[in-house]
Amino acid sequence: MNFKNPVSTVDIIIEQAGGIILIERMNPPHGWALPGGFVDYGESLESAARREALEETGLVVNLLGQFHTYSDPDRDSRQHTISTVFVAQASGKAQAGSDARKAGLFTKSTLPEPIVFDHALILKDYFDWQANGRTGVGQLKP
Q1: Which has the closest alpha carbon to 11: 142, 125, 135?
Q2: What is the number of domains present in the chain?
């Protein structure tokens, strides 16, 4: 019997200077996305989030906690992924690295297009959560 299981990923909402860091993807699907990627075998979600943030933005992040997990089988057209999203803070200037073409700082009113995967939904949930005093859908757990 052959089993197919979803693949674990992480995405990171990096808060900085009143905005968030997004990357423009170099590889398909092309567009803007939260920094993130696949969790390596033997790696914790937290370690994967720190590694992916560093690889894609050059920033060392301080993870504040898990925001929410997104598991819609259609969230990534390449394969079924389950992403745990973290909120983090960082200082310094983001620099595109690894599979990122560009990195930029954006606010809710300056988001670039297109935003790929289900990251528009994640960002909507995040901005709603912020507007509600950081309560509701993605309450951070220590």
Answers
A1: 125
A2: 1
> Within a domain: residue 140?
no
Whole-angstrom distance, CA of residue 34 vs CA of residue 127: 14
**69 in Cβ contact with 6 (< 8 Å):** no
Check which CATH number belongs to the domain holding 91 and give it. 3.90.79.10
**pLDDT tens digits, residue range 81-106?**
999 999 999 999 999 998 899 999 99
Give the residue numbers spanning the domain of 50. Answer: 7-131
How far apart, in Å, are the Cα atoms of 9 and each of 38, 43, 59, 109? 4, 11, 19, 27
Q: Is the pTM of this model over 0.70?
A: yes
Whether residue 138 is contained in a domain is answered as: no
